[in-house]
Amino acid sequence: MKTLVFDTGSIISIMTNNLMDVLIKLKEESHVDFIVTNEVKKELLDIPIQGKKFKLEAIMLDSYLKKYFKTFSNVSFNNIVNSVLNLCNNLFSVNGQYLKLVDRAEVEALIVASSMNADAFVVDERTIRLLAENPMKLHELFERKLHTKIQINNRNLREIMDKFSGMTILRSCDLMTIAYEKQLFVKFDFHEEFLDALLWGLKLRGCSVSEEEINEIIKIEINKGL
Amino acid sequence: MQKDVKEKILEILRESLNAIAFNKPEKLRELSDKIIHSASIYQDDNVVSVSVLIYALSKIYERKNYRNCRDWEKFNQLVVVNLKKAVETLEKDNDSDYYKAIKGIFESINSLDRKLKLYIEQVFEKAKVHRASRLHEHGISIGRTADILGISKWEIMDYIGSTGISDVRESKTIPIDKRLKKARELFSS
Asked: Which of residues 18-57 of B touch A (CB under 8 A)?
């Protein structure tokens, strides 16, 4: 059985676009296990339920999580989570001040995906994707945005790259493009405007995909002749 | 409070008082953007709360219709008096009175008439989400910014989508065809 570990943001983008049913169809058709960590579950359910704005989405999401997602919980992971959190948050510094880049839930999901050799880590959030795929891009971004020289802790950089390079990272927009290729959007007229609307819907609700990438995906799908 | 944090906050508060005195809300916006760099680096509660406060004030002062509300003058007075107090106390390294002065601005909202109170509360709530998105734009993760600002990831995700954050060149890591190929392999039944 193939396994996908999800970060909070990717599920939020899918849920707020009302695409959970499509995601579940994709899961069932391809026999893939979906996993979330306890911390991710907390962010998806416990926090929004306390407010009004996303309470409905959280309640609706709860039934999907119960039925179709496995929850990963292992206290023995605490030490490794702390150690990787420490690596990531002591990676870049400005005048001796380290930049705290990520939070516990994000790192925990990343570690679970890596430790269990998941087939992919699904993350819509940009910083954690850059850290896993190309930390130097994050360094570039900080230098450009903060208009200052950012020091790198090379030992931590090497450790992060050793741990996470080669990992398959997907975003909600990649999953939904596959769902589109598999013609899982049966309810709707199937034409290229639909793909544009789908990808923009995900982008506008927080998926880190650029306009240029959206145009590339559309071009790829047109060339495939769907 | 760290010495360099204190200096940054003092500079911003002094200039903010000037901007209010000379009725330049756009200057407040600039100051709020200026301190967001420090907020990204230090992630200190004091810097973050000043960034939210000054951004919210820029929004409040730029909307001329708020000035027609019954309690506008009262609000304006409370802001100016408390900002001056914040500067004076910080100059004297009196951190506890500084916190009281900043808290005084946030608390002053409760004493306003219903209409103005509602407007201003909404502006402060939106200001938190906006500042969170600016921190994320600088490279701090959504989770970390949610922690710093005390808001949920749902709110940040909802907001950042309408910004150009994911369109910058550094956001692209691997070619899209390569990523889709991996996805196709994974979902081939």
From this structure: 37, 40-43
pLDDT in tens, B169-183: 999 999 999 999 999
Residue A181 forms part of a structural domain: no
Contact status, residue B47 vs residue B8, Cβ threshold 8 Å = yes
Question: Please, how many CA atoms are within 13 Å of residue B139, restricted to the half-sphere of its CB?
Answer: 29
- Closest listed residue to residue A122, CA positions, set A26, A1, A3: A3
State which residues form the domain around B102. 3-168
pLDDT at A176 over 70: yes
Answer whether A201 touches B (CB < 8 Å). Answer: no
Q: Is residue B32 part of a domain?
A: yes
pTM, two decimal places: 0.92
Domains of chain B: total: 1
Query: Which domain does A20 fall in, by range?
Result: 2-170
Residue A41 lies in a domain: yes
Name residues 80-109 of chain A within 8 A of B (Cβ): 94, 97, 99-106
Q: What is the CATH number of the domain that holds A6?
A: 3.40.50.1010
Q: Is the pLDDT reported for residue A65 higher than 60?
A: yes
Average pLDDT, integer, range A25-38: 95
Is pLDDT larger for residue B5 or for residue A111? A111
Cβ–Cβ < 8 Å for A100, B140? yes
- Domain annotation covers residue A194: no
Strands A69-72 and A32-37: parallel
Number of domains in chain A: 1
